[in-house]
Design a protein that fits this description.
It contains 19 helices and 25 strands. By secondary structure, the chain is of the alpha/beta class. The longest helix is centred in the first third of the chain and has 21 residues. It starts with 6 loop residues before the first helix and ends with a strand.
Length: 559
């Protein structure tokens, strides 16, 4: 085990092809690219328009069971599956989200896959990449600055400073900025008021980037954003401040998808990066739809468990983009299921068939949920070296008894070769006749009704409790006619409920909503549960403490 290379060592030993060669394989010329060095590029909208005339390929969504500290490997499975399908003779694309600097330096230490199933150059992708996160941060904070400046310069819009709802952001975990007071220091610095920071990936600008169809749609959506309310209770939109054009200038490159490659030189589009626990958790519509034109099969992912990213993929992204997956892969591990079955994370290595059987309830619930959207489901078992044959056999048996296709993948250690069994099952799934798009709920239902449906159907709970402030917010949205939008639930990723301590498939619980806000630019309503943070904090020992760089620029410790 001591000689097993780390993810970054594998990445640094991989021979990359020039990105112009990778792009050529999927129908792009060098003129279609805006190069960021030799191994990454943005794709022009002229190329996107040209390729839009082609027919769509098949779409495979990769999601997972409820995540645990034991790890599931959803991104590496997504990459490994795409590599496997290419091995099997099918022109396959990968469409992923961009990592946020917050978790990179906080807990995860990297989010570009793992082992021999990574997107590369992983150091760049995990760090500044092509600057998209910085552009989103700048556009968000330009709007924040314009609000305070407008108030300072006479406040013609009569903005109620107690009801400014637009928050500042930064792409880093910094708990000290969750709640602040700004404008201190006298008259020249504006009006003192309470303010807040969120992490960049939770910004509505990020959601707008991921749901917009092009630059003009992006600009319109940013203008639609409600930033505050005036003294009469009327919404104030970003366009009333006259800065949506300037914001679009900052975003003119960020809206273009990024093309990179995997460890086996498969083309990958990495674009947009909202978290699935506090945002909608899917990569951009632009990148996904482009990938469908460039390959026979596109493999994409949605963040965290299927109750979060996959539900939002189905009920938000598919609704706006006019797409539907041809199959869903749910990634599970023996280790994580044993934890859902009651085993402490320190004791996951020893064989424990009873805990595995008990923890299967979590996987079964996610399978049941995805079937509600009328899509074929495949379970992908991400195999760890500590998994015993008896545990793998039992998990296969449980899946087969549940009537779901199942395959073991070893994509971390073997790359595409380790995903062939999973690829075979996926090919059988996508060959089935495709049914019409079927969302979970009608957007014209009330906010309370939509939240009840999600809680009962997806989480398995008994209902929803809206705190008094949330009830007031709902009444206001109903008064303004802003209640007929999809719901984006912000809740813990560690449980199907809103209590991170409830593992497995809990029952007889209620979900408590403390805050309801509308994102008119993105086009959805956020229902935030009582314990979720939109600005994470660093752990006691951040991943940043283990990272370093030498005099030759070689990075170590990045996963």
């Amino acid at each position: 085990m001591a000689n097993v290379p780390s993810d970054i060592e594998i990445a640094q030993q991989t021979k990359l092809e020039p990105i112009v060669n990778i792009a050529e394989k999927v129908g792009l010329t060098e003129d279609d690219l805006e190069l960021y060095g030799k191994y990454k590029a943005k794709i022009s909208f002229e190329a996107i328009k040209r390729l839009s005339k082609k027919e769509d390929g098949k779409l495979v969504l990769v999601t997972a069971i409820t995540p645990t500290p034991a790890g599931e490997g959803k991104t590496l499975t997504t990459i490994g599956l795409a590599q496997a399908l290419n091995h099997m003779g099918h022109k396959t694309m990968v469409a992923l989200r961009e990592p946020s600097l917050g978790p990179v330096f906080g807990i995860k230490g990297g989010a570009a896959g793992g082992g021999y199933s990574q997107v590369l150059p992983m150091e760049d992708i995990n760090l500044h990449f092509t600057g998209d996160m910085h552009a989103i941060t700048a556009a968000n904070n330009l709007l924040a600055a314009a609000i305070d400046n407008h108030v300072h310069q006479g406040n013609v819009l009569r903005i109620d400073v107690r009801r400014i709802v637009w928050k500042r952001v930064m792409d880093m975990n910094d708990r000290a900025l969750r709640n602040i007071v700004c404008g201190l220091g006298g008259k020249v610095n504006g009006f003192p008021r309470e303010d807040h920071f969120m992490i960049t990936v939770a910004s509505e600008i990020m959601a707008v980037l991921c749901l917009a169809h092009d630059l003009m749609d992006l600009k319109k959506r940013m203008g639609d954003i409600i930033v505050a309310y005036d003294v009469d209770g009327n919404p104030v939109h970003a366009r009333q401040l006259g800065v949506e054009g300037a914001m679009a200038i900052l975003m003119k490159d960020a809206i273009k998808p990024n093309i990179v490659q995997t460890t086996e030189n498969t083309a990958a589009l990495v674009h947009g990066g909202p978290f699935a626990n506090i945002a909608h958790g899917c990569n951009s519509v632009v990148a996904t739809k482009l990938a469908l034109k460039m390959g026979d099969i596109t493999v994409t992912e949605a963040g965290f468990g299927a109750d979060l990213g996959a539900e939002k993929f189905m009920d938000i992204k598919c609704r706006f983009a006019g797409i539907k997956p041809d199959a869903v892969v749910i990634v599970a591990t023996v280790r994580a299921l044993k934890m859902h079955g009651g085993v402490d994370k320190k004791n996951l290595k020893p064989e424990n068939l009873e805990a595995l059987k008990k923890g299967f309830a979590n996987l079964a619930k996610h399978i049941e949920n995805m079937r509600k959207y009328d899509v074929p489901v495949v379970v992908g078992i991400n195999k760890f070296i500590t998994d015993t044959d008896a545990e793998i056999d039992l998990l296969r048996q449980l899946c087969e008894e549940y009537g779901v296709a199942v395959a073991v993948n070893t994509c971390w250690a073997e790359g595409g070769k380790g995903g062939v069994e999973l690829g075979t099952q996926v090919l059988q799934a996508i060959a089935q006749p495709k049914t019409p798009y079927k969302p979970l709920y009608d957007v014209n239902a009330s906010i309370a009704e939509k939240m009840e449906i999600i809680t009962k159907e997806i989480y398995g709970g008994d209902g929803v409790v809206f705190e008094s402030n949330a009830r007031k917010q709902i009444k206001e949205l109903e008064r303004l006619g802003l209640d007929h939008m999809p719901i984006c639930v912000a809740k813990t990723q560690y449980s199907l409920s809103d209590d991170p301590a409830l593992l497995g498939a809990p029952k007889h619980f209620t979900v408590t909503v403390k805050d309801v806000r509308v994102c008119t630019g993105a086009g959805f309503i956020v229902c935030q549960t009582s314990n979720i943070m939109t600005m994470p904090g660093l752990p006691k020992v951040p991943a940043a403490n283990k990272m370093d760089i030498d005099e030759n620029g070689v990075i170590t410790g990045l996963f």
